[in-house]
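User: For this week's homework, look closely at the record that follows, marking any run of repeated tokens, and judge whether sequence predicts the tokens.
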Amino acid sequence: MIRVLVVDDSPSVCRLLAAFLRSDPGVTVAGTAHTGEAAVEQTRTLRPDVVTLDLEMPGIGGMAALDAIMATTPTPVVLLTGVSANAKAKTVEALACGAVDFLPKYTPGRATEPAELRAALLAKVRTAAGVKVIRSLPPRRLPDGGPSPLRLRPPPGTGRVLAIGASTGGPAAIRELLCGLPSDFPAGIVIVQHLPAAFTRPLAEQLSRTTPFPAREAAGGDLVEPGVALVAPGGRHLGFAADGRVELGDGAKVSGHRPSVDVAFRSAAKVYGARTVGVLLTGMGEDGARGLSELRAAGGRTFAQSAATCAVYGMPMRAVELGAAGAVDSPAGIAARLLSCFAGDVR
């Protein structure tokens, strides 16, 4: 039985969500809370399997409540979010701070019907109940104008690319990885994170604020430049043209996703070959595993996130099973290995 704490400042929304949850015989409502303070306290005392959390609440607010929950009683959290630009930005921030997933709140008159919300809520709660919560470390940034922590020897050849793929738990893992690299990292960075279209630009903006790298949502024709992070836009596949520039496509979903990590990795293997470093981080399913295998076969270096540090050990596990990962480590550990690779250390 999955025990859920429902948190929303609206009693009517709490009742609606509780009714949806109780319609599943495998789910029960452990309690409800209407403020951030109550959410933190009831998570501590009730020890639910999952918390559904509204980010817009009185008192300390949803973000502060999430931080406190992760610090004191780490629990899988599914966010109930608004549709404004500010709400989307807060959602991406919350995902980077440890929330597992999100879904839009039901608003009468909008396209999402109650039956659709019920099905989505139950699916996300079931998934969240099986997620291992990894407490996110505070973001680290290099001092403005300060030296890089390691002066890297220029790599042989030109036009190297670091391709990163992630899904559930990815925003926090990506941030940890990038924060372990210096701002003069001598490869372009391309990121494929499973997120809807409206959320990839806020992810790029957040990475610009919290990592050493300027980041932006990728556009067709973009150059892959050292020290710049490009985030694949939600709803578009990302690949590379023969000259190494970014290509975006609207093809069918691959492994259930668009953008797909497999698409990006396979394209990088064809265009960049041995000049590619591929990193597959936390996520459900197997997207990226076969692409990582193709990258390794093309001579690229490949890494997968370790089971102990993954929110969901799905995509990296499949890569390990396929023999696609040249090394397995935490995001911070992978960053250290990348520094060794690019500094000429063969470790």
Notes: Residues 114-129 form the longest helix (16 residues). The longest strand covers residues 27-33.
